[in-house]
Write a structure and sequence with these properties.
Blueprint (H helix, E strand, L loop, with lengths): L10 H52 L34 E3 L9 E4 L4 E4 L15
Parallel strand pairs: 1-2
Antiparallel strand pairs: 2-3
Length: about 140
């Protein structure tokens, strides 16, 4: 007697597998986007550390903080270029540098030549809930 049943998957089995794959994809996409944001925040923190190091090196050699980070006596000697602020959704990536101390939430960097303080010009919160300008 021959086996009347063919081997293989039924449409119901294939449908269940596709539903499971779809559910797993839905669960992983938010985690992936969160990882991208964390990565951009980390790159910005590293860039800020490099800027701070360059500012402090300038201060140690000259006894004053640089007046403007875009001037040739600073840019090119202490740091190659002003790094880009990458925040992942709050603002466009920007290397814009503003002078002053008041955060206006326009993105980029804000530098206070009186204190040598450099920070991100953003009042949003990062992935850990900390205000970005307070880094």
């Amino acid at each position: 007697m021959q086996n009347k049943f063919k081997s293989g998957f039924t449409l119901i089995e294939l449908g269940i597998v596709l539903i499971i794959i779809f559910i797993l994809a839905l669960l992983s996409v938010p985690q992936f986007s969160q990882l991208v944001k964390k990565s951009k925040e980390t790159k910005t923190r590293i860039a800020m550390t490099e800027l701070k190091d360059a500012i402090y090196t300038y201060y140690e050699k000259n006894g004053v903080y640089p007046v403007d980070l875009t001037q040739p006596e600073f840019l090119g000697k202490y740091i190659k270029k002003i790094p880009v602020v990458k925040l992942g959704g709050h603002h466009h990536d920007s290397a814009e540098l503003k002078l002053g101390e008041e955060i206006d939430d326009s993105g980029g960097w804000i530098y206070n030549p009186a204190t040598g303080n450099i920070s991100v010009n953003c009042s949003h919160k990062d992935t850990k809930g900390q205000e970005i300008s307070k880094w």
